[in-house]
Amino acid sequence: KEKYEIDLADFLATPKKDRQEDDRPERPTDVSNIYDDELSPEMLLRKMQDKPDGLFAYSEAGTLLSRLSSGYMAGFKEKLTDFYDGRSVPYRRETVSGGSITVENPAPSLLACSTFQWLQSHLAEADLLSGFLGRFIFVVRRDYPETLVPVPPYFEPDPSLKWVFEKLEKFTYQMTLSVDALGSYSEWYRKFWAWAVAQDEFTHSFLGRLLPTCHKIAIINHALSWALTEQGDPTVISSESYVQAYPWIDFFAKNLLDCYGEIVSGPDLKETRIIEIIRVKGKENRISHTWLCRYANMKSKDLREYLETLEEKRYVKKIEAGKYLFWEIGPNVPKK
Q1: Spatial CB neighbours of 324, under 8 Å, sequence gap ≥ 6
Q2: What is the value of pTM for the model shown?
Q3: What tens digit of pLDDT does each residue of 316-334 get?
């Protein structure tokens, strides 16, 4: 690409009377996997026909969220949610001109940065409830690193590792877990799941999405190990590949809880969270005040302020039984 830009500049610098159009340098084929920032759903799907595993890269996640909510992108957030489920079925869409677009094995990735303030201002309640945000991995940076890392003007793979990438590109095996890997994962799964479901309804649904991430990291570990050594059966994932994945899931879970706590700190989202806890954790849509405090991870005094607002809206109803206090879903809460 750099050579093309130099040759093109030389061509355009030549006076028109002295140059032939046939001498114009040919633009190289775009082999990058990065999608354009601004694409209509139809144009993006056409890109995905050739690059089903491309990358969305946004410097601001809030901009992406607002764009996905605009008119011309209507319905595409739901489609991205389907893509991030990792389903291997082809996606087909009819075009306005009467044709169709088919994307085989859609598996796009998305990389974006943001601040908690931007996310709070651009997130809707539906983004939390629909599971769209649950498809993402969050990494929170609280402090600046002690050592600054210089950023190069452009990124290119290390030429000495070209052979590794070539092997990975050809790594198309159908894989299964070894007996040891299955035992290791099953034991880790039981512990992780018991911890995750003890969280509130929003949080444990987000944490549950990290289970497929564990498999993905283990697959990456396995593919890299095989590409570098060519030892072992490439179709069988070892327990070591999973053992190396578990610390990553612990790291992502910690960051997710940190980010989640900030995102739902706005009053509207906290109210939604309280209602969902009563709906899901309560028996027959009723829960004691003590258990509501525990699931919401809030002090009783702070929780009462939100409950008073919800009671005024008739979203919750207070039930007093002797010295015990219960809360239940009110009549004005929309039915699911």
Answers
A1: 288, 289
A2: 0.66
A3: 999 998 888 999 988 888 6
